[in-house]
Amino acid sequence: MRRAAGLALATIALIATGIWIGFNVNLLPVVASANAPVYDDLFKLLFSIGIILFVGITIVLVYSLFKFRRRVGDQGDGLAIEGNLPLEIVWTAIPAVVVLFIGIYSYDIYERMGGMTSFHDHSAMLAGASDNASGIGAELASNIEVKAHPEIANTEQGKRYWAGIASMDDPDNKTLPVDVTAMQFAFIFHYPEGNITSGELHVSAGQPVQLRMEARDVIHAFWVPQFRLKQDIIPGQPTLLSFTPTKPGTYPIVCAELCGPYHGGMRTNVVVHDPDSFQTWLDQNRQPAISA
Amino acid sequence: MTIANPNDFNEPLQPSGWLRYFSFSLDHKVIGIQYLVCGFIFYLIGGALAGVIRVELASPISDFVSRDTYNEVLTLHGTIMIFLWIVPVVNGGFGNYLIPFYVGARDMAFPRLNAVAFWMIPPAGMLLISSYFLAGAAAQSGWTAYPPLSLTTPAAGQVVWILSVLLLGGSSIFGAINFIATVLKLRRPGLKLMQLPMYCWAMLGTSILAVLSTPVLAGTLILLSFDIIAHTGFFNPTLGGNVVVYQHLFWFYSHPAVYIMVLPAFGLVSEILPVHARKPLFGYVTMVYSIMAIVFLGLIVWAHHMFTSGTPPWMRLFFTIATSFIAVPTGIKFFNWLATLWGGRIAINSAMLFACAFILNFVFGGITGVALAQVPFDIHVHDTYFVVGHFHYIVYGGTVFVIFSSLYHWYPKFTGRLLNEDLGRLHFLLTFIGFNLCFLPQHWLGLNGMPRRVAEYDPAFTTLNQISSVGALLMAISTLPLLINVVVTAFKGEIAGDNPWNALTPEWLTSSPPPVENWPGEAPLVKEPYGYGHTEPALAQEATP
Hints:
Chain A is an alpha/beta fold.
């Protein structure tokens, strides 16, 4: 009885320690986008569960090796236990429940990050088309509506976009659209509003951004560790990625898909401005629009 | 049974002594050793390439080899370690040596096919490495060879790479067919499937995976070679091809390939733990079902390698759930191994140290694996050093540790001599410390912004990369005591006797090393390969024919 109580106490202590470490030891970079804290919630949970399982199994293993080590001169065998069905059912159930819980929780996280959200394109409601595309299943949208920005939509009529993470919500429809072109070994950012072309991405804290990304040559990937977001940029299949930056600062944009000899050098920055200085940057760099 | 007897057709041609290891021998034990030695040579080459990578990454700028060379090195490292070291050694090496013993046969079902499968490997390996020297440039697009990069890097090296992988895949398919036929059709009369040692089940499962998935890789690579040589457009977007389809086809093989690398290791550990813990393998039946569950689930999880490619949300969720559920049968196996140790009389020797370290390493890699299976988690760390750390915990901390454990366990069977324990423990200590020092920091690097397959990186990551490189150096040094041990023991080692571990599995119930047809008389009928604790008299009975 005292042994069972001790075991229960040790298990509780292990779980408490695991949760404390998981929620207090930070292994992640700065939080700079609206979905980064959501990501970090998932990370903390997985980190806690991981610590509990790993430390628990390590303790059991090391204890067994010490407690049941063969003494010098001992030629005997251990107990002839070939199995124990109730015990095996228990340790089938434990991982099954843990995994199910993680799966449901991460579905929730994915939804909160915008993974299941339909796209709100600045120029079109891409979402509506997704219902019709069920046969192929892959695309969220096929046609871009021509209303808001005819100069873009006309040239891209019929182009299929593949969804990445969508923006969370954008009630005022003030999303900043940016066209991204990736090539060996650079990113080029083009702002349809103001016709600005830049080697760095400039965005405004609090304003949702939608990237429409195309690759010129091979597969690249757009990754900002501080945003906890990544999306491949695939030749022949333009992709979308939306996010809302929250913390002003300069963060790296890293290519995360092997793209050739200078892959490691394919980096640039995203500058998150506060709204005023972003407006200044826009005004300073605005080019006369090319008429369609 | 006649088909299993190599002497029926060409005994006069079989050389004896050391020369037989360089011959087209049909003896499953010779072929097994050929796989092991050949694989180990490629391990040293692949390890040297890993050394080049870690020297380059000891500083944040690209200063050790040229950028092109760096990409060739990382491509060759991955390809060699997977296709020429781990897959051939845990399948072909230990499989050929042990499976005929375990089913009570005198050889594999198809001895000639077996020899052909082995002899495809050295030329394929030499072809692959020679591309660096002869074709002007080796493949530079990683072991994944994603188009369009693989279509735009120097063509000769890429085509040679494809040819080499096709040969190695062919060898793997031949081997797998042989294992399936041997386990199902060559069992000694009276021996039931559910009485087989666990490694037979692992090899049956692995071989089913290899036969189902390797042809898909072969077809894909043939189409890729058409794109390169004949300028077809299967995967070329400028000609209407689709690059994401390539990724689906590639991972349809290459995720099961992970199980082709780890399931045999699970099998080997299931043989080693009961012997040194003097206890029956815990939960035999659930172990068998777990292996088959892993085989089935392993076939339907491939797209978790593509969460940041163009995959629709529902598909991402399906593959998240399928992948997560692999943790259930895998978890059962680990709990059963712990239960096997519990209450045993555990001999803490080199074989056991490597086997127990495997449990820890693999649990760690499994936990990061479940995390990576979650789409939102993966979207941040995909294609980063977190993934590099994760899969090295699986394939090195998992499978390679088991290969070393198996070497200490079965070396007395191969040679009749025991490997030196002190050198063995030194080897273990250096490997364990070096391995964790090398790969543990990589998880943090990935979380904080270091992508994989880069020759240069943010200087903020220098310290941890240098620690990782020191770990790699320790791993390189750790092969020295192993090499010395294996070579010196072969000539001067302590004589082991036929059954130094008092093991009950059938390969120990004959002389060490065993005679050409495995047993002088009839093969013993071992119905309880893990009957420790109540069959001590039975052991003596079985051992004396």
